[in-house]
Amino acid sequence: MKRTADCLVIGGGIIGMLTARELAAAGREVMIVDKGHLGGESTWAGGGILSPLYPWRYPAPLTALASWGQRHYPSLIEALREATGIDPQWEPSGLLILDADEAARALQWARAHGQDLVQIDGAELAGLEPGLGPRPGRALWMPGVAHVRNPRLIKALRRALEVMGVRLCEGVSVNELLCVGDRTRGARTSAGCISAPQVVVAGGAWSASLVTGLGLETGIEPVRGQMLLFAARPGVVRRIVMQDGRYLIPRRDGHVLAGSTVEYVGFDKSVTRAARLSLHEAALNLVPALGGFPVEAHWAGLRPGNRDGLPLIGAVPGMEGLYINSGHFRNGVVLGPGSARMLAQIMGGQPVSVADPDPFRPERSCVPA
């Protein structure tokens, strides 16, 4: 294995892969190292909804970053399909939100940010999702929200990176960053030392440990999310449907994802009977017909939670050549394209065209001297 690169990306989830793609497209020699398989952690485990859940609950800068990703996803998917022959199954199904008490705040947010969100009545709701169980008299409808099939997106990105010449090193753990004074030189890994003048920490829930001791309290911590997969048929669920923090996502082949829990249990990825029963009950309350289909799979993943709701994107202060792109919590898929473009522009010394980078700067998490 060649042990040098222009840019070393630590972490091969959606954030790391998209960052590597941007850097390679800019002509950089890029290497990704991942302790497991590319996309094998929260990227694989998530639902692939291309919108923050209850987006009005997040800080305004996250809306700007998510909106950039939503606008660019169709072209990203088409580029991946053309380059690899793999279809990530981008589906513009729309999102129905049945939480009536969210209406005033949601509509105010939509007006402020120019978002396509409307309130609909019961008849319109029945037309959009005939299989719903007890329906509220009114609901919120976001017709522009799409979803992707995460495992297929991972395969497409992996193949695209191979075509671009990005070196993919799986099963390689990073023991420590290599630093000389205030300058990053690469990383010491289980496969030996790798030299690179620029290093990107994109390790998801594991990112915090890589920058320990640099005065950067990332606020990133693992948050377990459990999911179920129903082996349903096409048409049983037509839209992404959400209520009380639970959601259903219809895949093209009829499978339906039901998610998800939010559990602060450290790095424990085990599944629990309590979560399975809770998710199953919520799914059948939303669409009773799902009770006629078996649960094909039950799994858990660890999201990179962050205390202020915003990811860290940019240069790590006090350590030249070191960057971080992490802390996206439940929104890594929708924020990924914008986060990757933003960081690549920062690393290349270019003006940032995605959104204002200031709210995402890692120095907001610096420990006071």
Can you tell me about this structure?
By secondary structure, this protein is an alpha/beta fold. The protein folds into 2 domains: 7-49 and 151-219 and 308-365, FAD/NAD(P)-binding domain (3-Layer(bba) Sandwich); 92-143 and 221-306, D-Amino Acid Oxidase, Chain A, domain 2. It has 9 helices and 17 strands.
Find the CATH topology of the largest domain. Answer: FAD/NAD(P)-binding domain
Total strand segments: 17
Within CATH, the superfamily of the largest domain carries the name FAD/NAD(P)-binding domain
Largest sheet: 8 strands, mixed
Count, helices: 9
Estimate percent helicity: 25-40%
Give the amount of beta strand, in percent.
Answer: 15-25%
Instruction: Provide the spatial order of strands within the biggest beta sheet.
Output: 4-5-3-12-13-14-11-15
Q: Structural class, from helix and strand content? A: alpha/beta
How many angstroms separate the termini? 40 Å
Q: In a nutshell, what does this entry contain?
A:
The chain has nine helices and 17 strands. The protein is α/β, with parallel strands linked by helices and 369 residues long.
